[in-house]
Amino acid sequence: MRVSYHPGYVVPLPEKHAFPMGKFAALHEILLAEGVIAPGDIMTPREAERSDLLLAHTPRYLDALATGTLTRQEERRMGLPQSPALWRRSRLAVQGTMNACLAAVHDGLAGNLAGGTHHAHPDSGRGFCVLNDVAVALRALRRSGWIRRALVVDLDVHQGDGTAFIFGGERAWPAGGVYTFSMHGAKNYPFHKPPSTRDVALPDGTDDAAYLATLAHHLPEVIAEADPDLVVYLAGVDVIAGDRFGRISLTREGLAARDRAVAETVRQSGVPLCLLLSGGYATRGERADRRTSAYDTADLHATVFREAAAVYGLRQSAA
Ligand SMILES: [Zn+2]
């Protein structure tokens, strides 16, 4: 499975910052060590072009990021301190998603070891999301004629407000060409949720059985409604019980079953599938070893790549 990755996905953050920045490098290591991906599968992105970023973002916002002139309030809303490294990182991740979407169209399955930054709006970063990689990538692929319609399956525990806002939800379907499906915690961030094409809000504490039944009900319907040329899957792992920012209660087995169900359902539909991370904020494992929150989070993010590789018969070696 071809995946996008760049060492520049990891940038320094102040100590004790809530975002587990090390998860991107840890995921890269885990997937290579397990043979889920091979070294030759890695696609190294460059920084996304401004002309592409303008497909989803305002010139004012891009200029402010580039020059480090976001206001304190804007920076606080974004949840990450602005820096030249963060600006570069954000553009690398956008290009990584663009490359992964294109690879998925060619190969049937591909991914980015980052991305799914679904809270980013046209003129603002929000909730640890700087740029909306999915919006830029899908608009770029539509512009160049690689796809006509796309389906965004957003299973991060937080609603995909930025993506929903940009693509306009049901009002804009089918003219906008992008169907947004978000299944998320009803009481979670963001507290203002612009409508996706289809939103499914889950009560606090939703368990494996209820979650998987709800997904099994909606997913085949949205694939049929969207009739897409590409499915982009935001496989956020903040649905796990004990996540620092989640409010629902999947087990590790439930998470694997979720990712397997998405891969199987999309594969049966014959539509190319692109895998993206989105959120995950694991608390440290109970074992008294040197594992960090970033490592534990990365291990959860590895689930979707393991399951998809198995479903598509792409596993490089038995781990
Ligand atoms: Zn999230």
What do you see in this structure?
- With 319 residues, the protein is of the alpha/beta class.
- The protein is 42% helix and 11% strand.
- An 8-stranded parallel β-sheet has the order 2-1-3-8-7-4-5-6, sandwiched between helices.
- The chain binds zinc ion.
- Zinc ion is lined by residues 156-158, 236, 238, 278-279.
Distance between the termini: 16 Å
Give the strand order, joined by hyphens, for the main sheet: 2-1-3-8-7-4-5-6
Structural class: alpha/beta
Range of helix content: 40-55%
Kindly report the CATH topology: Arginase, Chain A
Return the average pLDDT rounded to an integer: 94
Topology of this protein?
Blueprint: E1 2-4, H1 23-34, E2 42-43, H2 50-53, H3 59-67, H4 72-78, H5 84-107, E3 109-112, H6 133-143, E4 150-154, H7 161-167, H8 169-172, E5 178-185, E6 198-202, H9 208-226, E7 230-234, H10 252-269, E8 273-276, H11 293-311
Parallel strand pairs: 1-2, 1-3, 3-8, 4-5, 4-7, 5-6, 7-8
Helix pairs in contact: 1-11, 5-6, 9-10, 10-11
Bound molecules: zinc ion.
Short description:
The chain is an alpha/beta fold and 319 residues long. Helix content is 42%, strand content 11%.
